[in-house]
């Protein structure tokens, strides 16, 4: 079992100050080693307090954000951050986003904050936007992947906000957190999916319901003169451009590395194909019986009478589609199908982030 560890003295002192709640991660007055792993805890004030104490003691905590769930560690504790990589199976040189309680903490993490960063933070934080800025000297290499930049986000989910505020009271000014999924897999948008991903590798999963946006934050690189979009998300390039007063550059080979920009990412285990609506209708009618080996994520195409495989009708509107996307893919992934067929959504500004994730989920090596 992968266990969160902090220096002994500190661990015992911190945990002794935590009251036992009788649920969640076991006897908080005992050593970290005795914690019941991956316990899903309702995000009550007591459990948030306990999660903050655990983070401060060096443990990994999964917590809700409005985009997807995060797998968090104290961003000032190198051993704790390293544990994130071990739990995810993620390459060690990939940077992780630092989540902050407020934009006022930015100067502790970034050595220069230009007018563009100020304007975007003002307009969209707390919210689903990550800013890549020149790192402050004190930021750990394990957080930045050895790059000269740091990714910062102030999340809007009330549980994430409360957790960050409590950690700040304890002296911790940031939570390093990638999405709470194994490397390359679908992000988790509820507490149960986090527990399914990590088994006993996480000390505690705070349950804050289903994530509102359902896909990861928009990422903007502000390390060069021209802001660049590294990952599309709920905040569109059009909205960013309006605040910045100019259009964003698209990523180049010079842009900082981002694992969410790998061609194959966010992928179900079952082979998945993206199929235009009219082609999907044709492919379904051409299926020979039995047809149970195909699972379908439809949007406008109606399920044929004779189809007996798994079928999900996704919402027609982009925000609702995004909100349920990963849960729908997870559901279809468990149905023992040979292939998942995904009806391609329309093009257009509202669908850019969803189409980006679908392209990566269906990319073949
Ligand atoms: O919505 C989100 O952003 C979620 C929640 C938990 O905040 N987090 C998330 O983290 O999606 P992750 O690690 O799965 O994706 C963050 C992306 C990665 O592709 C990472 O490489 C990139 O952000 N990133 C982080 N720091 C960076 C940096 N300094 N330079 C370039 N890319 C960075
Ligand atoms: Mg991720």
Characterization of this structure:
This protein has 365 residues and is an alpha/beta fold. The chain is built from twelve helices and 14 strands. The chain has helices at 8-16, 45-56, 78-88, 106-109, 115-124, 141-144, 158-169, 191-198, 237-244, 277-285, 318-333, 352-361, and strands at 39-42, 61-63, 70-74, 97-99, 129-134, 149-153, 175-176, 204-207, 218-221, 228-231, 271-275, 294-298, 310-313, 339-343. The strands form two sheets. The protein has a ten-stranded mixed beta sheet with strand order 1-8-2-3-7-4-6-5-9-10, sandwiched between helices. The two termini are 32 Å apart. The relative contact order is 0.14. Mean pLDDT is 87; it is low at 1-37. The structure holds threonylcarbamoyladenylate and magnesium ion (MG). The site of magnesium ion (MG) has 4 residues, from loops.
Q: Which secondary structure elements does this structure contain, and how are they paired or packed?
A:
Elements: H1 8-16, E1 39-42, H2 45-56, E2 61-63, E3 70-74, H3 78-88, E4 97-99, H4 106-109, H5 115-124, E5 129-134, H6 141-144, E6 149-153, H7 158-169, E7 175-176, H8 191-198, E8 204-207, E9 218-221, E10 228-231, H9 237-244, E11 271-275, H10 277-285, E12 294-298, E13 310-313, H11 318-333, E14 339-343, H12 352-361
Parallel strand pairs: 1-8, 2-8, 4-6, 5-9, 11-14, 12-13, 12-14
Antiparallel strand pairs: 2-3, 3-7, 4-7, 5-6, 9-10
Helix pairs in contact: 2-7
The structure holds threonylcarbamoyladenylate and magnesium ion (MG).
């Amino acid at each position: 079992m992968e266990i969160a560890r902090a220096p002994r003295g500190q661990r015992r002192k911190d945990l002794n100050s935590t009251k036992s709640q009788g649920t969640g991660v076991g006897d908080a007055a005992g050593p970290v080693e005795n914690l019941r792993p991956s316990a899903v805890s309702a995000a009550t004030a007591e459990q948030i307090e306990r999660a903050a104490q655990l983070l401060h003691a060096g443990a990994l905590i999964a917590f809700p954000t409005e985009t997807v769930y995060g797998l968090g560690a104290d961003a000032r504790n190198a051993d704790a951050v390293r544990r994130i990589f071990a739990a995810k199976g993620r390459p060690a040189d990939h940077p992780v986003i630092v989540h902050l309680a407020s934009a006022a903490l930015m100067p502790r993490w970034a050595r220069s904050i230009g007018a563009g960063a100020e304007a975007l933070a003002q307009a969209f934080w707390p919210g689903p936007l990550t800013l890549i800025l020149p790192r402050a000297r004190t930021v750990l290499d394990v957080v930045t992947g050895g790059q000269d930049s740091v990714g910062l986000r102030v999340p809007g989910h009330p549980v994430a906000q409360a957790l960050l505020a409590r950690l700040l009271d304890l002296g911790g000014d940031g939570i390093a957190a990638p999405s709470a999924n194994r490397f390359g897999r679908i992000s988790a948008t509820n507490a149960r999916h986090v527990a399914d991903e990590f088994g006993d590798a996480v000390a505690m999963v705070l349950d804050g319901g289903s994530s509102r946006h359902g896909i990861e934050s928009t990422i903007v690189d502000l390390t060069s003169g021209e802001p660049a979009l590294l990952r599309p998300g709920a905040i569109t390039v059009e909205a960013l451009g309006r605040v910045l007063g100019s259009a964003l550059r698209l990523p180049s080979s010079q842009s900082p590395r981002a694992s969410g920009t790998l061609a194959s990412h966010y992928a179900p285990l079952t082979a998945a194909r993206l199929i235009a609506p009219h082609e999907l209708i044709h492919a379904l009618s051409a299926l020979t019986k039995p047809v149970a080996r195909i699972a379908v994520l439809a949007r406008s195409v109606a399920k044929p009478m004779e189809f007996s495989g798994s079928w999900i009708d996704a919402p027609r509107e982009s925000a609702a589609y995004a909100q349920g996307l990963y849960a729908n893919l997870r559901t279809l992934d468990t149905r023992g199908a040979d292939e998942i067929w995904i009806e391609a959504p329309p093009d257009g500004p509202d669908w850019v982030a969803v189409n980006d994730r679908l392209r990566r989920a269906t990319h073949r090596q």
